[in-house]
């Protein structure tokens, strides 16, 4: 799942559902959530919730910070973090994972481009094939 901080609500619903499944001893697939924000500490929307999800192994949260990239593995934008984590993304794809993007203008276009790049690097096929 990929979103900017303003698109957090829909992905939170997914994560909460995963926690419910885990609490009911149901199996859930590994899940990555990439969130873009300005500052990790100042924009710590739902930080307690993220930590709970991580502890319950419902969702692994990766955050990119535009104003403090040194706090987010040097990644200024969510698409940069997505590229850095491409091995994890490819691993999930190989297990049939889907992609959910809470879109917002430019970020969505950049995320699409990075996802295509990851797929092309993985398969050796064309960008046209990836977009299909």
From TrEMBL:
SUPFAM superfamilies: Ferredoxin reductase-like, C-terminal NADP-linked domain. Residues 1-111 form the Oxidoreductase FAD/NAD(P)-binding domain. Keywords: Flavoprotein. InterPro entries: FNR_nucleotide-bd, OxRdtase_FAD/NAD-bd. One of its GO terms (cellular component) is cytosol. GO terms for molecular function: flavin adenine dinucleotide binding; FMN binding; NADPH-hemoprotein reductase activity. Pfam families: NAD_binding_1. This is Oxidoreductase FAD/NAD(P)-binding domain-containing protein. It comes from Letharia lupina. The lineage of its organism: Eukaryota, Fungi, Dikarya, Ascomycota, Pezizomycotina.
């Amino acid at each position: 799942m990929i979103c900017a901080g303003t698109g957090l609500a829909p992905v939170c619903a997914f994560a909460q559902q995963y926690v419910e499944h885990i609490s009911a001893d149901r199996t859930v697939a590994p899940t990555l959530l990439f969130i873009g924000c300005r500052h990790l500490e100042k924009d710590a929307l739902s930080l307690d919730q993220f930590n709970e999800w991580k502890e319950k192994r419902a969702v692994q949260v990766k955050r990119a910070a535009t104003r403090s990239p040194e706090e987010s593995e040097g990644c200024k934008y969510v698409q940069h973090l997505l590229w850095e984590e491409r091995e994890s993304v490819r691993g999930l794809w190989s297990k049939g994972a889907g992609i959910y993007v809470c879109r917002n203008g430019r970020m969505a276009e950049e995320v699409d481009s990075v996802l295509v790049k990851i797929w092309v690097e993985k398969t050796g096929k064309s960008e046209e094939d990836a977009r299909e």
